[in-house]
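so the lab meeting is tmrw and i was supposed to have these ready like two days ago... anyway. pasting both below. for each one the top line is the aa sequence and the line under it is the structure tokens. i havent really looked at them closely yet so no promises
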Amino acid sequence: MFWKKGLMKYEVRQYLLCGDEAILYDNGLHTIYVNAEIDNGTSLAKLMQYLKTAKAGDTSQGALSEYVNYLKSPEGGREVMGEFEKYFREEGRKAGVEEGRKAGVEEGRKEGIINSVKALMQNTKISAQEAMRMLSIPPEEQQKLLPLL
């Protein structure tokens, strides 16, 4: 595999094949693979080493280091985790509301069908099965509704 070439950075380029000709194609996407095991002394190598260790107090990567140190501090960690917790709590609440709404709609639909079947049975003096057939209730649903009538 080409990863074993001993390089730190491998750029992926895309080409369009037009017959026998390969034309470099720029779709705006840039894919770069970085081998963090290679330390060639470049700023990219230093960034990779930092990302592998990210020790608190290390300020070698400027704004990134400041943010990492903030996250590793008690107040920064609490604040960010509090934001995560708030986000996931809200997402869970939304999902619960939606699930409850769907269950309520289904329960209301079922209650409406039961009331319609009962009213039809009472007003026309027919059986539950006949009333459900007249209401075009599918046989599999009829079996579920029979015990509720």
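ok protien two:
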Amino acid sequence: MIRHYALRGHRHRIRTGRCGCASAHEHSSGHRRAHHCFLHYSPSGIGTVEELMEVWTMNRLSEIDKPVGLLNTAGFFAAFLGFIDHMVDTKFLPAAHRHSISVDADASALIDKLHSHARVDVPKWL
């Protein structure tokens, strides 16, 4: 658990492991270095969505090159994906960026998609 949050009384009721990180940024930086991909799989708070967007942006900026996946259990991320689709429809986001995140409701299918990840490079268009 991030020390700052533990000191404020924000403890996860299920997770008991402690990372000893001083900040959320330090915690995320460690994940970006250590993991082969980024998989967001559970309904959770705004911090998870923020981290997803940060990793997606870092991929776009070529700061990292790791697949990103959303396990859309029971359609939990449907509204979020609808917003992203709206960004594409209004030409705020290239369609290729939308499809650079692997999404599936089935965990095995999502893992297969992550294994076959191919980097999406879109020229700067604005």
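from a quick look at the 2nd one: DSSP finds six helices and three strands in the chain. The beta strands are 38-40, 68-71, 101-104. will dig more after coffe
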